[in-house]
Amino acid sequence: MDAARARKLADRIQQVVAEMLERRIKDPRLGFVTVTDAKVTADLSDATVYYTVFGSEAERADTAAALESAKGIIRSEVGRQTGLRHTPGLTFVHDPLPDNARHMDDLFALAKAKDAEVARQAEGAKFAGDADPYRFEEDLDAEAAEEEGEDEPSGRAGRPAR
User: Fold this and answer.
1) Is the dihedral of CA 17, 22, 24, 27 positive or negative?
2) Using an 8 Å Cβ cutoff, are 17 and 49 in contact?
3) What is the rounded CA–CA span in Å between residue 141 and residue 45?
4) What is the pTM of this model?
């Protein structure tokens, strides 16, 4: 099948499921649910609906059970509103994206705190050797001239000035 058609169908399924959860499904186990994404297989036979739940792990489990019990009603409404001859089977999957984003935020905060600690420790630090440990070409030329006993360059390569 066409990938563009599958994407359009996935978007429509996402809208229908979100509307059904908001208006028609009145299960008390259903928590604060947000439908984040939907993906449809290329042959349009299966649809995976991704959702997030605001709350504890127990509320996530209750919401998963409520979605499983309402799967038939939601699938029939998807079939009615999309007009497909064969309605895709629905699979509800908890979307780990918000948890991953929260974990990344924690890691960034930890890295920022460690950087601040390193900067605080480096405030009064001094260099172990010279302030500028790199050698420059002028320094090398001056050292070479001192070793050869030259006072002035001759302008000719390899010969001292007379």
Assistant:
1) positive
2) yes
3) 78
4) 0.63
